[in-house]
Design goal:
- The protein has a single domain (about 5-215), classed as Rossmann fold.
- Helix content is about 40%, strand content about 25%.
- The protein has 7 helices and 10 strands.
- Strands 1, 2, 3, 4, 5, 6, 9 and 10 form an 8-stranded mixed beta sheet that branches. Strands 7-8 form a two-stranded antiparallel sheet.
- A hairpin with a 5-residue loop joins strand 4 and strand 5.
- Helix 1 (about 5-10) runs antiparallel to helix 2 (about 20-50) and helix 2 crosses helix 3.
């Protein structure tokens, strides 16, 4: 599996002339950028088809694709109400909520520790993927694993949005090993799933009901 960024950079191999390399890099940047925008619009359109009017949605993280999809749903008359769960005190955790509110969505905030209560009153859980592995698992924002687990227990669907550059051709274990090498927080288990408080979390593929993507192979 080759993601969009990998495909682009592979086209630069073998170019030794620095001026030509600069020209080709700029061209690829424009091309890939346009493809990403087009792809994300397609993902947002597919997300629109999943969402019913006046849905209550719980999200976590600061995914720009998730933001685009939720704003698109608002523009198309779905008028979802959004609860943004905060997994940490980092300022960026408030970013998506502020931008959604600026787009006239109904936004509220909650804490990850209260995930069960917020998910219980929601229609679905939605968040963006940082990457998807060849095993089908998803690396997402801190706390997304616990949020997905809460949704699974309560029978609420989990929707993950992934852009064209998010697929990687390596196993989940490869990236999990990498995270363990740079993050010393201790993992713990809930049910059969291993979760942990890291900057990124691993969401098992069997916790995801819909992976909405337009990945280029």
């Amino acid at each position: 599996m080759v993601n969009l960024a990998q495909r682009g950079f592979s086209e630069l191999k073998g170019i030794t002339d620095l001026k030509l390399l600069q020209i080709e890099t700029e061209r690829l940047g424009r091309t890939i950028g346009a493809e990403i925008v087009t792809s994300e619009k397609a993902v947002a359109s597919s997300f629109d088809e999943l969402v019913s009017p006046e849905e209550r949605i719980v999200t976590i993280g600061s995914s720009s694709l998730c933001e685009r999809a939720l704003v698109s749903a608002q523009v198309h008359g779905k008028h979802p109400s959004i609860t943004v769960l905060l997994a940490s005190a980092k300022p960026e955790t408030l970013t998506i909520g502020k931008r959604l509110a600026q787009s006239s969505l109904d936004v509220s905030y909650g804490f990850l520790a209260d995930a069960m209560r917020h998910v219980a009153s929601a229609d679905r859980v939605v968040f963006g993927a940082h990457l998807t592995t060849q095993d089908g698992d998803v690396f997402a924002a801190q706390g997304a694993d616990l949020l997905a687990l809460a949704a699974k227990r309560l029978g609420k669907p989990v929707v993950v949005l992934a852009g064209p550059f998010k697929a990687v051709g390596r196993s989940t274990e490869y990236y999990a090993d990498y995270l363990r090498a740079i993050d010393m927080d201790v993992d713990f288990s809930v049910d059969k799933y291993t979760v942990g408080i890291h900057d990124l979390s691993v969401v098992s593929r069997d916790l995801v009901d819909h992976l909405v993507s337009n990945i280029r192979l």
